[in-house]
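[#protein-structures] MJ: dropping Peptide-methionine (R)-S-oxide reductase here for a structure pass
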Amino acid sequence: MFFLYFNAPNDLICFTNQIYLLLVLETGDVNYASVSDEEWKKKLTAEEFYITRQKGTERAFTGYDLFNVLEYWNTKTPGTYHCICCNTPLFESSTKFDSGTGWPSYYQPIGNNVKSKLDLSIIFMPRQEVLCAACDAHLGHVFDDGPPPTGKRYCINSASLKLKPK
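AK: finished. structure tokens for Peptide-methionine (R)-S-oxide reductase:
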């Protein structure tokens, strides 16, 4: 048993709201459009927030995880890659391939858990942005130079993923 001490009633409210947010985000029982940037910042690391909520890109060949133990761009661990924001399963390790780009690459997402939209952020270089279909987290981009059977290359930022090994 442990006790929590608070200086003011608002401390308790703040603490319980943070716990509620973490539980709600993990269980998926939330309208993600209503989650504020401040709430996302409480759940995510600075790097995860930058990548997923501000459409950032991590440096190639660096990989990412909380303790920099895994480099998802070159790991061969079997399992399922989930959205770091909402825990939606996105890619199976069986669809991962070495694209030589320095980012984890997959030729097929799980079901309709990933969506894409036109990205015109770079002049003269239109591309398709890849988003989590559940929470709109920016994952990376998809290109038409992947292997069979789809011919697609989902080039994904490691910071947007959480590997759940089998």
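MJ: nice. The two ends are 33 Å apart (CA to CA).
AK: one more thing. Residues 1-25 have pLDDT under 50 and may be disordered.
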